[in-house]
Amino acid sequence: MSIKPASESPRIALFGLNSGPTLASDALAGVAILAEELGYESFWVGEHPVLPDPPSPDSPFDPKMALADPVVVLSFLAAITRRVRLATGVLLLPLRNPVILAKELASLDVLSGGRLMVGLGLGYIRPEAAAVGVPYAERAARSRDYLAAMRSLWHDDKPAYHGRFVEFDHVDAHPRPAQSDLHVVMGGMSPGALRRAVAHAHGWYGFMLRPEQAAAHVRGLREAAEIVDRPPHLGPLEITVTPRGRLDRDGVEEFRAAGVHRLVLSPRTGLDQAALEDYVREHAELIVPAQP
After folding, report:
1. For the chain, which domains are there?
2. What is this structure's pTM?
3. 3-state secondary structure of 8
4. What is the DSSP string of 182-202?
């Protein structure tokens, strides 16, 4: 498998603009416009439709944590920005209806001018899957069906899909995405997740990693490529990581050496708008302008 060479400094992106102070539209607009002006390459937002109450062993989150829907937030960001790419990091694919989600994401890609990156994952919180009636053990198989079905709706002249979890024929869906091959990123760090990234996605996303952990997962992706085939149209695999802990220029170089192409910075929770804007300004020094 071909992984994109990491000869240049990783692009710098921002995570989490759908929680905390950015739940207020004015604050979200202020932070997003500032980050775009400073040169951040992309914004990434994740999701948890529901959280266990009380917290469960697989979910340490406060059930009252406010987390806005990622597609809604990215739609807002598409309207107030012009350059920055917009990414789900990640959508929990097996918890969604694939036909409706395909329409939402195609519409968002059109309205953003082709700036969408679709980050997908399986989810890991059992009560969350149960709340939407999805058997936890079926998540991987369901996700494979859903992604294939969505791609047919996005890109096939005559969309059709006949799978275990979704089936349709003699239908069509417009608008189609602005991108001729809508960019898909697969999240997760299990061996199965690495295989899914190689087989089905343009990129892979690892969350809260140190440079040595990122390097280990890049090796794991290469090993996965010896087991599964990668469709040629996906091109070289792109590596995206949210780093753990404070990041400086030396850390950026360590991630580059590990094979990472994009670093999605995650501000600590509890910041107010002013502190979040200070974080965005402070970390803008890590951005290396793109070569002409």
Report:
1. 11-89+109-120+186-286 (3.20.20.30)
2. 0.96
3. coil
4. -EEEEE--SHHHHHHHHHH-S
